[in-house]
Amino acid sequence: MAKLITKSAAGWIFLALSFVGMSCSFAAEEVSVTDEPLHVNTYQVGFSNSVRAQQGSFDQYGAYHAYPDGSSSWALTSNLNGSYRLSQKWEIDGGLSFRKSGSTFPTGDTNSFSYGSPLVDMKYHAGGWAHLVLHAGASPGWSYKKSHSDGNPSASLSDDFGDGQFQGAAAHLGVGASRSIKRFRLAFDTTTILPFQTRVTPLDGPPDGPSYSSHQGNRFQISEGLGYTLTDQWGINGGFKQMWGLDSTTEGADNVGTAGRLFTTRVGATYNASPAWRWMAAFETSEPFYNYAVNQSYSPAVSVGLTYAGI
């Protein structure tokens, strides 16, 4: 079983809980139990932060490998997102993400900063008894990353912190459904992420050296959520998310053993400070589906956010 969160990671969790910064997710937009508008609004702007404490990883066979004693790894992701209601049926969303990560291992320390590609998403509210939302969008793949490593370069980690997020150029298609019944709100969403093929130049080669084609495997995500309104101001919610990723390819050949799989649990709460302002907090973990992950990290996360809905 995974080790307890290190003191360093716990400090970042406290930092994430104590302030809200700008940002938006690398992942595709989806319908959730917190999507219900605060009031009839034309636009919404959201700010959030999440911190992940990475404690180990699952290999291609699903076997878990905990990090050595004294090691720590964390990632702080800030998100800025917004939406604008074009009409009763059509809505456009967009977002941008920033990530600061670091690790300490016996082989050396690493740290990096990156921002993800802008995400643009169009939603069509089809309505119906179970309110249907069709959404489609794309990310052009513009991104920036700066990293530094002290000691053995093998200490460097990828930016995959087990959150199912995809960084890079991709298109996505999905459909969601939500329904409010008295104090309960249910939501379901399924999304397909289709990465674009890219040309890659080896890091140890010259900038104008030979390159090769690389294609990340398609990803499929499903989420289920349930919310409950306690009072006019307070609400609680929870849910599950599943992600499956196919093998990546290099020059058209499958990279066998690179397919990924993840199943997470999420619990949270919301507070409506006024008709226009909403605070949100949540905790996400792969428990109790700990043995389901493949080619993913084990990294519980805490997140906080703020949404403003304007007339």
Write the layout of secondary structure elements.
Blueprint: H1 7-18, E1 43-54, E2 56-58, E3 64-66, E4 72-85, E5 90-105, E6 108-115, E7 119-127, E8 131-139, E9 144-151, E10 170-181, E11 184-195, E12 198-200, E13 212-215, E14 219-229, E15 234-245, E16 249-250, E17 253-254, E18 260-272, E19 277-285, E20 296-298, E21 301-310
Antiparallel strand pairs: 1-4, 1-21, 2-3, 2-20, 4-5, 5-6, 5-7, 6-9, 7-8, 8-10, 10-11, 11-14, 12-13, 13-16, 14-15, 15-18, 16-17, 18-19, 19-21
Sum this structure up briefly.
The protein is mostly beta strands and 311 residues long. The protein has one helix at 7-18; strands at 43-54, 56-58, 64-66, 72-85, 90-105, 108-115, 119-127, 131-139, 144-151, 170-181, 184-195, 198-200, 212-215, 219-229, 234-245, 249-250, 253-254, 260-272, 277-285, 296-298, 301-310. The strands form 3 sheets. A 12-stranded antiparallel β-barrel has the order 1-4-5-7-8-10-11-14-15-18-19-21. The chain has a 4-stranded antiparallel beta sheet with strand order 12-13-16-17, with no helix packed on it.
Task: Report on the architecture of this protein.
- The protein has 311 residues and is mainly β.
- It contains one helix and 21 strands.
- The strands form three sheets. It has a twelve-stranded antiparallel β-barrel. A four-stranded antiparallel β-sheet has the order 12-13-16-17, with no helix packed on it. Strands 3-2-20 form a three-stranded antiparallel β-sheet, with no helix packed on it.
- It is globular.
- The N and C termini lie far apart (49 Å).
